[in-house]
Design a protein that fits this description.
Layout: E1 16-19, E2 22-26, E3 28-33, E4 35-36, E5 39-40, H1 48-59, E6 63-71, H2 75-88, E7 101-104, H3 128-138, E8 142-147, H4 154-163, E9 167-170, H5 177-186, E10 190-191, H6 208-214, E11 219-223, H7 231-241, E12 246-249, E13 261-265, E14 268-272, E15 278-280, H8 293-304, H9 308-313, H10 317-322, E16 332-338, E17 343-351, E18 354-358
Parallel strand pairs: 3-6, 6-7, 7-8, 8-9, 9-10, 10-11, 11-12
Antiparallel strand pairs: 1-2, 2-16, 4-5, 13-14, 14-15, 16-17, 17-18
Helix pairs in contact: 2-3, 4-5
Length: 361
């Protein structure tokens, strides 16, 4: 599916067949997790034992490292959530799966559509002083910041945070092509859940989705749950980015790996519907997902026909590169793959050489 030039030829993905439909791969990495297993990472008072439980649930899905993601809220709430998550990094058994934090907003487009479900009243322009407060609250663990390049001064902000080792990601934007080009020139290297956080109706071309798809210096995340993106767009987008620049993300909320019911994403009430959609309470507007990364791999294969090796790459090597995560030996997942159903069943997970999950059978 992915023709490559000589310069784009891919190294071995690390996927190995163990026989009888069983495979081993590097541990899965999710760059966008707002919450999981009933726990909202945006809640400043989320109990540490609940966060630990949610990390164990992520490991049962093959995830060995992830970025807890804090979305647009008041300055106090965002700093409180980061401070609480920093404490979770010290959990003796689970903390090593936290690879840093992703701050998604508040420097995004205030316009309906690109804004997504982020609360408009807390959207504000890029502010280096605020970034410094995030770093202080998190113990210097900010790994990725998603913002819109449409703001005045965005390119300068991007250059400054990139110089400090933070990944600048473009998302929830209505930026022009020139503004996106300026952001990339300043050091932006990632597109957050590309194809979502956008106008329902837009100019067919050019527009900010095509501009990011066409920019080879941008890797891009995609939510492959079948709700956020349809099969035709996802297949086209993966072809545009190629197997080396596409990343599977979940944008998971507290509703992921949890029963039907009501949950929160910061100050936002959410409903998990019987169809598996996560929507703003009382409506039908998507607000994150109930996806897990093992299911995202299977859904990407089902929706687009890509190979297991390419889908696994998009959940392992590519997110490590996109998030600039240092290599760590001993992160591994063993799973069973049913090609007819395009379904992965995680059998065992290891973190830093220590087995942290195994099925009972």
């Amino acid at each position: 599916m992915f023709p490559q030039t000589k310069e784009e030829r891919l190294p071995n993905s690390g996927l190995t067949a163990q026989g009888a439909g069983i495979f081993e791969a590097p541990g899965f990495i999710d760059l966008q997790v707002n919450g999981f297993a009933g726990v909202d990472y945006n809640e400043p008072g989320a109990p540490l034992d609940g966060i630990a439980r949610s990390i164990r649930a992520l490991r049962a899905c093959g995830v060995t490292r992830f970025l807890p993601t804090v979305i647009t809220a008041s300055p106090e709430a965002m700093e409180g959530a980061l401070r609480n998550l920093a404490a979770a990094c010290e959990l003796p058994a689970e903390g090593e799966s936290i690879a840093g934090f992703h701050v998604e907003g508040p420097h995004i487009s205030p316009e309906d559509g690109p804004r997504g479900a982020h609360p408009r009243r807390w959207i504000r322009p890029p502010d280096l002083a605020e970034f410094r407060r995030w770093q202080a609250a998190s113990g210097g663990r900010i790994r990725m910041v998603t913002l819109s390049p449409e703001w005045p001064g965005a390119a300068e902000y991007i250059a400054r945070i990139v110089a400090e080792g933070v990944v600048a990601a473009i998302g929830h934007t209505q930026a022009s092509g020139a503004q996106i080009a300026d952001a990339v020139a300043a050091g932006a290297t990632f597109s957050t859940h590309l194809g979502n956080g956008a106008h329902a109706v837009m100019r067919r071309h050019p527009n900010y989705i095509w501009d990011q798809l066409a920019e080879d210096r941008l890797m891009a995340g995609f939510i492959a749950d079948g709700f956020h993106l349809d099969a035709a767009f996802l297949k086209t987008a993966l072809r545009a980015k190629g197997a080396n620049r596409a990343v599977l993300v979940t944008d998971a909320t507290a509703a992921a790996s949890a029963p039907l019911g009501r949950y929160t994403l910061g100050e936002l009430p959410l409903d998990l519907t019987s169809q598996g959609r996560v929507v703003l309470a009382g409506g039908d507007r998507l607000a994150g997902s109930a996806l897990s990364l093992d299911r995202a791999i299977g859904r990407a294969i089902e929706l687009t026909g890509i190979s297991l090796a390419d889908a696994v790459r998009m959940a392992t090597l590519n997110p490590a590169r996109a998030g600039r995560l240092p290599a760590r030996g001993g992160d591994c997942v063993r799973f069973r793959f049913d090609p007819a159903a395009a379904r992965i069943e995680v059998i065992a997970t290891w973190v830093a050489g220590r087995q942290v999950y195994a099925t009972e059978r």
